[in-house]
C-alpha cells in the first residue's frame, strides 16, 4: 500500500496516527517532528493551541518507496552485511517448458511405450540444471512449471528431493533415480477419478480410502513395466509411510521404509502445505517449516535436517515484515536455520541477527 497524505481536523486525531508535517513554535523550534506517531500529549497540545488540522500519513510505504528513502548509513550497512545466497536451482524458460511438457506426458500416458524414456528425460533436465548451477539449495517459489497442481507438485517434490539427496551425499545415479521416484510419486493418482481427486469439500471415508490407494496404484504402474529399479518403486510405494508406523499403505516401521521414500515424504508434505488447493488455503512458508519441524515422530530426522538446510525461504534482497512492525531487507541466510536470517530494518537502519542475537529472540518474520 502506498502512503497517502491527508488533511484531518485535530478533533479527529487519534493516538498512533503518523503526522506528515513538522509542528514548530514561533521561534522555529520543532515541537513535533514530521513522521512522528501522535500520542495523547501531542493531540492535547495541538487542540490546546487551537490548531485546526494537520496532515497525516495513511497507509504504509511500499518496499520500493522505503528503499528510495533509505539514509546512506542504512544503504552502506546493507551492502556491507549482504552475503549472496547459496546457489539455488534455477530453471530457464526453455527447461521449464520441456519439463512441463514432459511431466504432463507422463501423467497422461502411463501406458506409453516411451514412458520410462520420457521420465528419464525429465529427470536428466533437472539433473543438468542442478549440475549447471552447482545448486545446493532450492527456493520452490522459483520453480513453477505449471498452473496444474499435479504437474507442479511432482516437479517441486522431485527437485527438492534431489537437492536433499545431494546434501545426503548420494551418488549422481542415486540422485537421478531419486528424482525419477519424486516425479512419479503421485502417478497412481492418474487412476483416481477427477471428482475425488479435485473435490473441494471433505472426502468421505470411502473416497479417502480410495485416495490412499494411489501409492499402490503407482507401484503397480511401474512394476508391470519392469523398467524401474526397486528403489524408485519403493519411493513411490512408501512416500506416505511414517517412521512411527502410522502411515500407509501398510504401516511400515522406520527400518522398513526405503531412504528414497523418507526423503520424498518430507518434500511432499512441505510442498502440499505451501500450495493452495480447492479444499484448503496455502500455509505461509515459515509456518509450513515449523509444522515440518514438529513432525519428528513421523518424518526421518536426517531427511528433515537435510531438507531444512537446503530450503531457502527468504531470498537475499527480499523484503520481509518483522513482528515489531518494521519492514526489513534480508542480507544473509542461515543454512542451519532457514527461519532466522540476518536482516536490516528499513526504518531503523538496524542489523537484526535473528539466529544469534539474543536481543532478537522475540522477533519473528510474519
Key words describing this protein structure:
alpha+beta, 366 residues, 4-stranded antiparallel beta sheet, 14 helices, 3-stranded antiparallel beta sheet
Please give a structural write-up.
The protein has 366 residues and is α+β, with helices and mostly antiparallel strands. Helices cover 42% and strands 10% of the residues. The chain is built from 14 helices and nine strands. The strands form three sheets. Strands 6-7-8-9 form a four-stranded antiparallel beta sheet, with helices on one face. It has a three-stranded antiparallel beta sheet with strand order 1-5-2, with no helix packed on it. The protein has a two-stranded antiparallel ribbon with strand order 3-4. A hairpin with a 5-residue loop joins strand 8 and strand 9 (351-353). The radius of gyration is 26 Å and the shape is elongated. 33% of the residues are buried.
What is the structure about, briefly put?
This protein is of the alpha+beta class and 366 residues long. Helix content is 42%, strand content 10%.
Amino acid at each position: 500500500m502506498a502512503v497517502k497524505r491527508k488533511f484531518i481536523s485535530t478533533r479527529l486525531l487519534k493516538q498512533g496516527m503518523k503526522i506528515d508535517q513538522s509542528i514548530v513554535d514561533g521561534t522555529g523550534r520543532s515541537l513535533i517532528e514530521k513522521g512522528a506517531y501522535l500520542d495523547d500529549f501531542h493531540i492535547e497540545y495541538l487542540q490546546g493551541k487551537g490548531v485546526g488540522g494537520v496532515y497525516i500519513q495513511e497507509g504504509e510505504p511500499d518496499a520500493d518507496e522505503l528503499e528510495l528513502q533509505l539514509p546512506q548509513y542504512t544503504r552502506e550497512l546493507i551492502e556491507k552485511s549482504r552475503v549472496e545466497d547459496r546457489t539455488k536451482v534455477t530453471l530457464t524458460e526453455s527447461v521449464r517448458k520441456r519439463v512441463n511438457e514432459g511431466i504432463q506426458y507422463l501423467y497422461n500416458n502411463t501406458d506409453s511405450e516411451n514412458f520410462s524414456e520420457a521420465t528419464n528425460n525429465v529427470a536428466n533436465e533437472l539433473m543438468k540444471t542442478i549440475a549447471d548451477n552447482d545448486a545446493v539449495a532450492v527456493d520452490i517459489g522459483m520453480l513453477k512449471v505449471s498452473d496444474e497442481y499435479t504437474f507442479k507438485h511432482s516437479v517441486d517434490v522431485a527437485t527438492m528431493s534431489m537437492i536433499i539427496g545431494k546434501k545426503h551425499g548420494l551418488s549422481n545415479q542415486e540422485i537421478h533415480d531419486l528424482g525419477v521416484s519424486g516425479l512419479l510419486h503421485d502417478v497412481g493418482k492418474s487412476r483416481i477419478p477427477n471428482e475425488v481427486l479435485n473435490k473441494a469439500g471433505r472426502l468421505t471415508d470411502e473416497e479417502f480410502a480410495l485416495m490412499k490407494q494411489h501409492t499402490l496404484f503407482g507401484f503397480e504402474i511401474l512394476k508391470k513395466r519392469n523398467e524401474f529399479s526397486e528403489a524408485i518403486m519403493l519411493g513411490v510405494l512408501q512416500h506416505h509411510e511414517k517412521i512411527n508406523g502410522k502411515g500407509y499403505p501398510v504401516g511400515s516401521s522406520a527400518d522398513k521404509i526405503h531412504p528414497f521414500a523418507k526423503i520424498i515424504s518430507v518434500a511432499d508434505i512441505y510442498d502440499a502445505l505451501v500450495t493452495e488447493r480447492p479444499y484448503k488455503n496455502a500455509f505461509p512458508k515459515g509456518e509450513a517449516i515449523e509444522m515440518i519441524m514438529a513432525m519428528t515422530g513421523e518424518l526421518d530426522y536426517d531427511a528433515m535436517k537435510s531438507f531444512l538446510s537446503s530450503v531457502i525461504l527468504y531470498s537475499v534482497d527480499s523484503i520481509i515484515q518483522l513482528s515489531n512492525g518494521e519492514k526489513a531487507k534480508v542480507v544473509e541466510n542461515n543454512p542451519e536455520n532457514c527461519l532466522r536470517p540476518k536482516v536490516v530494518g528499513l526504518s531503523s537502519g538496524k542489523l537484526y541477527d535473528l539466529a544469534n542475537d539474543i536481543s532478537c529472540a522475540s522477533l519473528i518474520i510474519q
